[in-house]
Design brief:
Blueprint (H helix, E strand, L loop, with lengths): L3 E5 L4 H12 L6 E5 L4 H7 L5 E4 L5 E3 L4 H9 L3
Parallel strand pairs: 1-2
Antiparallel strand pairs: 1-3, 3-4
């Protein structure tokens, strides 16, 4: 699987839900968590939209809310 980035914020229950879904999907070791509060540009870009999952190969983003079906389609998409 290509590297995934989970953009999140601390104390974000939706981010926790997204992370639980990733783990339940067997992707526990396949993503990197990035705290958007540590980067002003990321905070401007994603501030009210986290969690956001991004594929580093295609730069495609999957915005919350998403479920197992949407996650699978996102991971299988070519571009």
């Amino acid at each position: 699987m290509n590297q995934l980035i989970l953009y999140h914020q601390p104390d974000c229950h939706l981010c926790d839900e997204a992370e639980s879904l990733l783990h339940a999907s067997g992707l526990g070791g396949s993503y990197q968590k990035v705290d958007i509060e540590t980067d002003l540009e990321l905070l401007k870009q994603y501030g009210i939209h986290v969690p956001v999952l991004m594929r580093s190969d295609t730069r495609q983003e999957l915005f919350w809310p998403f479920d197992q079906v949407q996650l699978t389609a996102f991971l299988q998409a070519e571009n």
